[in-house]
Amino acid sequence: MHEASLCQGLLDLVLETVDGAASQGKPVRRVTEIVCELGLFSCIEPVTLASCFELFAENTLASGAKLTIRKAPLDCRCQACGHTFTAHERFFSCPNCGGDNIHFDGGHGLMLLSLSVDTEDTEDTCDTHEAVETVDTEE
Question: DSSP for 107-131?
């Protein structure tokens, strides 16, 4: 089960981000929500990932945080007709010609998109798009 190593990597990234905010004078009391994007071909079960994360986050600032996992769309190109499209499901064919010789790059990662946190004064959202880090799910 590689969900455990992914959870540890995700938790480490979350806590590093929170520590970075604290070093900039924005101390965080707790993380309330973590939003991630999961590649279509990551072979990760979202429910298992969420359950595992809950266990790993115990006794940290992320304890009790809601883990929101979105499916990342996948940019594709049909090799038969050249049509480009975005796939949202694992099993797909070209919407233009019905062909199944589809080329794509990626779809294997777990990406941290944003954190919502409680600070000393209020609830804030820490947008991590500028410092996006991918945890590779390929073994």
Answer: --EEEEEEEEEEESSSEEEEE-GGG
Are 77 and 44 part of one and the same domain? Answer: no
Q: Which domain holds residue 98?
A: 73-106
Task: Give the whole-angstrom CA distance, residue 81 versus residue 118.
Answer: 51
Buried b (16+ CB within 10 A) or exposed e, 68-101: ebebbebebebeeeeeebebeeeebebeeeeeee
Please give the distance of CA 106 from its chain centroid, rounded to a whole number.
13
Asked if residue 83 and residue 60 are part of one domain, the reply reads no
Which pTM value belongs to this model? Answer: 0.74
Radius of gyration of the chain (CA): 18
Each residue's pLDDT tens digit, 36-72: 999 888 888 889 999 999 999 999 999 999 999 998 8
Amino acid at 67: L
